[in-house]
Amino acid sequence: MTAVIEFFTRRQGKKKLSLVDWVSYGFLFLGFLIIFLPVLWLIMNSVKSQFLLQKYDTNFLPLDYERVARATAYGPEGKEIMIIKDLPTWALFWKDLNKDERAEKDLDNLLSNYSGNEYYALRTHFELVSGAAKELIIERNLPEWLIKYPSMFPSAKKEYDPESIVSQLDPEETRLLSEYLGLKPYKPNGFTSQILISMMDPETSEVVEYSVSRIDPNRDIVNARLISNPQGGIVKLPVNEIILNKSLKPSWINYTDPLTKNVLGSFDAVRCINNSLFVTIVATLITLLINSMAAFALSKYRFNGQIIFFVIILATLMVPASVLIVGIFKMVTMTGLSGSLWGVIIPGAATPTGVFMLRQYMLTIPDELLEAARMDAASEWTIYWRIVFPLALPAIVVLGILSIIWRWNDLILPMIAVSTTKAAYTIQLCLLDFNGEYIAREHYGLAMTVVSLVPTTLVFVFLQKYITTGIASTGIK
Amino acid sequence: MANLKLLDIKKSYGKTEVVHGVDLEVLDGEFCVLVGPSGCGKSTLLRMIAGLEAITAGSILIDDVEVNNISAAKRGLAMVFQSYALYPHMTVRQNLAFGLENLKLDKADIDQRIIKAANQLRMEDYLKRKPGQLSGGQRQRVAIGRAIVREPSIYLFDEPLSNLDAELRVATRVELKALHARLGNTMVYVTHDQIEAMTMADKIVVMHDGIIEQTGTPLDLYNKPANLFVAGFIGSPKMNFLDCSSLPESVKKLAPKGAFTFGVRPEHLSIKEDNSLPLKVKNVEQLGSDSYLYGDTIDNQVLSIKLNNQTDIKSGQSINVGLDESDMHWFDSNGISL
């Protein structure tokens, strides 16, 4: 740590910062920002809630609005619009929770705080109506067709007369059953989450709270509903005078949900990451082995056609990868590797870049070392494994780093080889998969994009020193 | 312990022949030095003996067994390279053990051999270091140690002293000679330095342009060089060569029939008032114990003289040089000794 501080506080000899120091640090900082700002933006966006992302929120920090619930209850007295404050966030976004999460919440305790229309609206919101209605039907020995009534065709509904049954019940039961059956004047109650804003009253100078459904930055006015009198209808407020109550609310579920397999549908981030890890590690090991062996042969043996082989290998560098797509696809399907991770690993195992890089490095290993090893009764494999491989390690590590990054970020090969098999999706395919789904899940997508950056970052942090140090002394003058 | 025979060895790279039929016998326990200017094929010859280079024609026999088609590993030889070729990523101990591990010796045996070699070469202190952390002399010892632990039948040295500074070179020369005396193995040693050859060899093989010019003991080569090349190569400073036609009558009359070139070593010349060869001194080098004089004869041929004492002769001075009949060398028009 002290070394880091010392490094970042270096200056040009004098005690005070000189102009050169200012310019240098300024330039460094600028460069850092240019490179890092987009990444930082991505990270910040990855902890924004789904709601904010859908609203194309442009804030840097994950600032979320204070929220209230706007509920509508229907009844004999007509429609009542209410604003329910102080609901916990999970209650506001009940619809987004899955079974397990819902089971964890203490609904009864929450509902016991409410009564009347607020209670009815929340009951509908928490999807408790049908369960309670069915219970009532069984408890009171009411006819069984009542249960099926809501899902009947209109023509079939005409054959029954639910009103006569409902009218015999007490008012609470009437409301419950009517809401279930969809009988007038009852209707399923409405519930939405809205943004809480406030504005100073120009006359009284009091701060008044309003709720709005959305704030459109392109418009000058916003349609708001007074919290203290929600029934009073919509008022139009000038956008530049309203006060937004924002608070820092990082949405960690963006990360925790996919990583704990808490997401509905076919998306399985953990499996995708595991697949990617497997592909990256195995493919890199195979790449290093094959490429270093090829480079060893090309750099240290004399054989007929040596130059031709080398030129052919180099020539493949000039073929654009996109040209090879069809060829690789045919190869993968014909060898039966389609849909298997090996179909991703094997076609990219030998890279001309790697062979070239390692060959050039191995040329610098003196032949005398190999001859000394031959005099020392070493087999050719021993020479490769115990002399050439360790000495070429700096180059091999560089290739390893490159290979890890290539493999982890690769999209083309997985698309060619495993796009039809969801179980074999790599992380990049998974991220792509978000676009094809019906439900908007950008928040998971962004979070998983950040997760997908972690391995390559770690590789750089921990392996970059090997690039610089290498094996310094060759022992040969 | 082994003897080595080379029968008509030839080596070509493509169409260029670099070794033109070499015959050589190295006896058991002999210290044989291959010497010659760079590019004469001596290193190639050594590498062919080692098995690192294929031979184009001829045969190599170790203990009268032909080894042409036996790989380097199985010939049972050990080689010390000019660059030492130590494995830079291994410690000294691992360097020594590498060859033994390849031979599948058991661990105790390997340890014992390493300790013995480390003792002999006084390198116990740096067994755990890597070659990069050693001085040139220490690396040299490790390279020799790597050969010793193998307990080979024949040691091959490829200019092992050329990377050392002058002082260390002399010391190591003595040490190598002592090592040879102690081990008693056959050794083949390649160098371009005739002093190394003269001081260490039991037998010197002078090579030039891919052929052997002369084989013999150091003094044989010095006293009876077979031709102009050997005469010029062995001895320092170089032997003086003069055209016979330009010699004064007193010397010319001693020439055998067919003599074309006259040779005399600088150390065999002396300054005499009354004798034959007039010389104009152009340069004088005083070394304290010795003095070198360089000058021109009447017909502008260069002549050098080595005196075993200090001298007050100055450059520009004219002197007379005297020589003994017994020290004269005569060569015919083909450069062959007469």
Task: For this entry, give a set of tags.
heterodimer; A: 477 residues; alpha+beta; MetI-like fold; 3 domains; seven-stranded antiparallel sheet; two-stranded antiparallel sheet; 24 helices; elongated; B: 338 residues; Rossmann fold; OB fold (Dihydrolipoamide Acetyltransferase, E2P); six-stranded mixed sheet; five-stranded antiparallel sheet; 9 helices; 30% strand
Write a compact overview of the structure shown.
The complex is a heterodimer of chains A (477) and B (338). Chain A is α+β, with helices and mostly antiparallel strands and 477 residues long.
Structure description:
The complex is a heterodimer of chains A (477) and B (338). By secondary structure, chain A is an alpha+beta fold. Chain A folds into three domains: 2-46, no CATH class; 63-249, no CATH class; 258-469, MetI-like fold (Orthogonal Bundle), CATH 1.10.3720.10. Helices cover 54% and strands 11% of the residues of chain A. In chain A, the strands form two sheets. In chain A, strands 2, 3, 4, 5, 6, 7 and 8 form a seven-stranded antiparallel β-sheet that branches. In chain A, strands 1-9 form a two-stranded antiparallel sheet. The longest helix of chain A has 32 residues, at 269-300. The two termini of chain A are 38 Å apart. The relative contact order of chain A is 0.09. Mean pLDDT of chain A is 83; it is low at 470-477. Chain B has two domains: 4-217, P-loop containing nucleotide triphosphate hydrolases (Rossmann fold), CATH 3.40.50; 237-331, Nucleic acid-binding proteins (OB fold (Dihydrolipoamide Acetyltransferase, E2P), Beta Barrel). In chain B, 27% of the residues lie in helices and 30% in strands. Chain B is built from nine helices and 18 strands. In chain B, helix 2 crosses helix 3 (107-121), helix 2 (92-102) runs parallel beside helix 4 (136-149) and helix 3 crosses helix 4 (136-149). The two termini of chain B are 38 Å apart. In chain B, 38% of the residues are buried. The mean pLDDT of chain B is 89. The A-B interface holds A 366, 368-369, 371-379, 382, 386-387, 390-391, 471-477 and B 47, 50-52, 71-74, 77-79, 81-89, 98-99, 102-103, 130-133, 136, 139, 146, 150, 163.
